[in-house]
Each structure stands twice: as structure tokens, then as C-alpha cells.
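dude i think i finally got it to work??
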Amino acid sequence: MCDMGHAHDHQHFGFLVDTPEIRALVAETQRLTAAIDEVPARVEALRPAFARLLASDGWLPESCAQPDEKSRMGGGIGQYALYRAEDGSLCLFSLVVPAGASTPVHDHLAWGLVGIYRGRQDETVYRRLDDGRDPSRADLEIAKRQELGPGEFYTLLPPTDDIHYVRTISDAPSISIHLLANDTACVWRHRFEPATGVVTPFRSGYANAPCRDVE
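look at this
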């Protein structure tokens, strides 16, 4: 589980961590995706299943709950794939942010749910004021801030609330669980510098699975 080796490609898709709790959430997500066309209603319907995963103990391996000193996000942040649909339509991953560390300001480019499994986080969400025509620039302002602890979660419905960063405010690393409708760590997303307006493309990568070559 959370093997750092790079074996055959097919081993890096499907259930990289195979537990009843993860299978139940993925099955419910697939069922609701087929049954509900409107994304906001679909995400709302997913909330009980996601809450059950966050409330369950023992399903996340310790190997998927460790900092990653080779992280492309910096700061020892570890991103571990738990489930990846081979067609890139869904992923579930754990994000480990060491105490005192913070992510870059970034987007996700997919609907989903994000919740805290261990520790506490401070989240700062930005809204974009420009029209997005210049891919290298963005005019951002802070839309909201919130503190979150174990069991608390929020929705992502791009473009609303899709640009943010999180900082761990607990003494131990925070671990958040992300259910998103893309292969998040392997999608080219955006890193933002709110003070200067600079936007750069980035791909965060998983600590335990490679991205396919998309060049």
C-alpha cells in the first residue's frame, strides 16, 4: 500500500489502497455520477458517504500519512493516490501537510469534496477578479478563511472556491482526504502568486504513482 516503486502502469490505477471504506465511497460516487446530471446536486448527495469515510478509523495506511521530502509542492507535502480511475475521471488521495507548512496557492480544475482526517488546517480561499484571458496573470482577492478539524469538509465547484491554499495549524501534520473528478496530481494546474499576480503551470504528482506522459 502506497508503494513508492514504479512497476507496470496498470498497477498505478484502480484501488492503490483497497479497503471496504474506500470501495464504498468510490461505488457511491460512481452511482451518483450516473444518476445525477447536475454537479452541485451530485456533490451534495455525496456528502453523507464522504462524511462516513472521514469518520472511519484504520483504513488509511501509515505509509500514506507521511511527509514527502521529494514533494513537487515543497515543504515536505505528501500526496498519495488511494484510487485513480484509469480514464482520469475520478481520484481519491491523501494530502499530508507537515506542522507549520502550507501549500502553494493553487487550483483543482474539478468538482469534488475535501475533508480533514487528522490534524487541523487553516484554509484561505481566493476569488478571481480578472477575466482569465491572460494565462500568465491573475488578479486575486481573499474571499474567505476558515479553520477545519477532523471530520469537517467542504465542496469544490469550479470556478467557485477553486483557488486556495491550506496551512497546518496543529502540532502534528494535517491529513486531508480529496475526492475529485480528475486525476488531480497528474493534471496541469495553476500555481498563483497573489502579491504579484503571476500564474505558472504546475503538476504536483503523486508520491506513490507516476503520471502518464502527457506531452
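The domain at 9-202 is CATH 2.60.120.10 (Jelly Rolls).
im so relieved honestly
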